[in-house]
Amino acid sequence: MKRHLKEVSSGQLYEAQILESFPGEKPLKKDGWQFTWKKLDKIEGAQFYKIKLKDSPSKLEGLLMITLINDEMLYMNNLELAPHNYGSKGKYENVAGCLIAFACKKSFELGRGNYLGFLSFDSKTELISLYEEKYGATWAMGQKMFIDPGHGRKLMEQYLNIAAE
């Protein structure tokens, strides 16, 4: 499973790894992160994943938090890029795409019944159109969104170079 982050300034691709993130590895708000990851770390049943460059394993590029609701539907609780990857001046592209595609992959592994392959999440209002246009997400109501199995497979192929089984 190859995934790459693209350096914005040069266009160069760098191989990245998505790994489980353990307690004690979470970044701090004082370092510019938006979420209080250390508090989120205490939520029972939550799984955390980090994305790092293969050649810079000590530096986080982004974090993902997912939970399985009612033992059948995967929910993406939080997704955050490292502060140096925010917005149009970010250092690397594809960080969010890789993490969302990874969450889609997990939805095929953990989802059950009618929810197999579906990834649900809440979006900030200003990001709804971005999720629809860039990631193929569907707006349900309010801030509720989901990525269906078909779009999930496309994201897995695009960002992780794998197809769902």
Q: Which structural class matches the secondary elements?
A: alpha+beta
Approximately what portion of the residues adopt beta-strand conformation? 25-35%
Helix residue percentage:
10-25%
User: How many beta-strand segments?
Assistant: 9
Radius of gyration: 15 Å
Query: What kind of sheet is the major sheet?
Result: 9 strands, mixed
The neighbouring-strand order within the major sheet is 6-1-2-3-4-5-7-9-8
Number of helical elements: 4
- One letter per element, helices H and strands E, the order comes to EEHEEEEHEHEEH
What is the CA–CA distance across the termini?
13 Å
On the 0-100 scale, what is the average pLDDT?
A: 94
Global shape:
globular
Q: Which regions are unreliable across 5 or more consecutive residues at pLDDT < 50?
A: none
Characterise the protein shown here.
The chain is 24% helix and 35% strand. The chain is of the alpha+beta class. A nine-stranded mixed β-sheet has the order 6-1-2-3-4-5-7-9-8. Strand 4 (56-69) and strand 5 form a beta hairpin. The radius of gyration is 15 Å and the shape is globular.
Please describe the topology of this protein.
Elements: E1 3-7, E2 13-20, H1 37-40, E3 47-53, E4 56-69, E5 73-81, E6 92-93, H2 95-110, E7 119-122, H3 128-135, E8 138-141, E9 144-147, H4 149-160
Parallel strand pairs: 5-7
Antiparallel strand pairs: 1-2, 1-6, 2-3, 3-4, 4-5, 7-9, 8-9
Helix pairs in contact: 2-4
Looking at this protein, list some descriptive labels.
165 residues, alpha+beta, nine-stranded mixed sheet, 4 helices, 9 strands, 24% helix
